[in-house]
Design brief:
The chain contains four helices and four strands; from the N terminus they run βαββαβαα. The protein has about 110 residues and is α+β, with helices and mostly antiparallel strands.
């Protein structure tokens, strides 16, 4: 599991975000945390998952990496973050290629 350096967190305090990032990396349960990932199945721009879903055996056995680009405390907040991410991607690159936007400079936290 990879968490990009320029992680979108919205209005979440930095201390809370840092704590949650550590829990997600260690694959520990996180209550009411939604993560935004690059598409896991090659369709779409971004996907929203509850962080605890990645504790399931299926995701532990995946051979390709899960790239987390955003995190929110509510599902609605995650969708607002997606809007902000898409706006930034299009404003920077002139296209809607989120994968290239985040993987071009694959700095990981």
């Amino acid at each position: 599991m990879t968490i990009v350096k320029r992680l979108y967190t919205g209005v979440m305090p930095d201390k809370t975000a840092s704590r949650l990032i550590k829990r997600i990396k260690k694959r520990k349960p996180c209550a009411d945390v939604y993560v935004i990932t690059l598409p896991l199945f090659e369709d779409g721009l971004l996907e929203v998952y509850e962080a605890n879903e990645f504790l399931q055996p299926y995701y532990k056995k995946r051979t390709d990496d899960i790239v987390i680009v955003g995190m929110s405390m509510t599902k609605a907040g995650a969708f607002f973050l997606i809007r902000d991410i898409i706006r930034d991607v299009y404003g920077t690159t002139g296209k809607f290629d989120c994968k290239d936007y985040f993987l071009y400079d694959m700095t990981v936290c």
